[in-house]
Design goal:
9 helices
């Protein structure tokens, strides 16, 4: 059974107890990250997930609270996989490593992939590649490990034996930066449908309107909806309109916490559940 682990449940503004957005999907010996905000690498270890198991990252859009952990993740997997110093940190039998990890199982460590594929909205790939190069993530420094930056757009963009990924565009960035409409800026933002083991998980990313995912929610088994750009009342109405059995809210703004607390009963009645850092659910 695959699992979804919310590494960071918060939005852009600092919030006690909530780091920025990152969702980990755990399946077999692999980990897929949807968004990778800082400090995703540290949170993976904090929640018992070995960084070497992360082989695919999808960035939904280029706001900092969704992408700032990519460099550290790429660097740390390189250190761990290519067995560079500090060696004391790298002994897989060392108590610090062995006693704090639960995924993947130690018997599956030989099945982890020696690469990291980073999917970004088409038009950003060159900039991301240059950024990683500036962090010394270049082919000449790798032994067994490699990093690839791959562009994606609307539709299915990844499929393997564990994960199928489909992107649906939304207007979040275009609404956020109307002054950039006539420039060459990349204004893409996507909602992602993750299919694993025959189950579908919808990750809404940031939206301009709930209408952008109206046609998607009925086909999903697990639904993660962002809570930064909508009030709790709007989330309740959305869940009730679609008669959804369960909606998990992520990307929660600190300024909305009191309102969520005040409407806790109504949210529960509408099957709307707030996530938290470390929240985990079977898919």
């Amino acid at each position: 059974m695959a699992k979804a682990l919310m590494l960071g449940s918060g939005a852009a503004l600092p919030a006690k107890g909530r780091f920025n957005t990152s969702l980990a999907i755990l399946e077999g010996a692999r980990t897929l990250l949807i968004d990778c905000a800082q400090p995703a690498s540290e949170l993976l270890y904090h929640h018992g997930v070995d960084i070497v198991s992360v082989d695919t990252v999808v960035i939904t859009h280029m706001h900092a609270d969704h992408v700032t952990g990519v460099g550290q993740l790429a660097h740390l997997k390189h250190i761990l996989f290519d067995n560079k110093p500090p060696r004391v940190f790298l002994d897989r039998n060392d108590g610090f490593i062995k006693d704090n990890l639960r995924h993947p199982h130690r018997n599956e460590l030989n099945n982890v992939n020696p690469w990291l594929n980073i999917y970004v909205p088409a038009g950003v790939e060159e900039t991301m590649t240059q950024y990683l190069s500036a962090l010394y993530m270049r082919p000449e420094v790798f032994a067994k490990y490699s990093v690839s930056v791959l562009p994606y757009g609307e539709g299915e963009f990844h499929s393997d034996e564990n994960f199928k990924l489909v992107a649906y565009p939304n207007a979040h960035i275009r609404e956020f930066y109307p002054e950039l409409q006539n420039t060459d800026a990349v204004l893409s933002s996507y909602t992602i449908m993750i299919e694993t083991l025959g189950r579908k998980c919808l990750y809404s990313s940031d939206l301009a309107s709930f209408e952008e995912i109206d046609h998607l929610v009925d086909g999903a088994d697990t639904i993660f909806v962002e809570g930064a750009h909508f009030s709790p009342s709007e989330l309740i109405r959305f869940a009730q309109e679609h008669k959804l059995e369960q909606v998990f809210v992520h990307h929660i703004l600190a300024t909305r916490e009191e309102e969520f607390a005040r409407l806790a009963r109504e949210l529960a009645q509408a099957n709307v559940k707030l996530t938290f850092d470390g929240f985990e659910v079977e898919l």
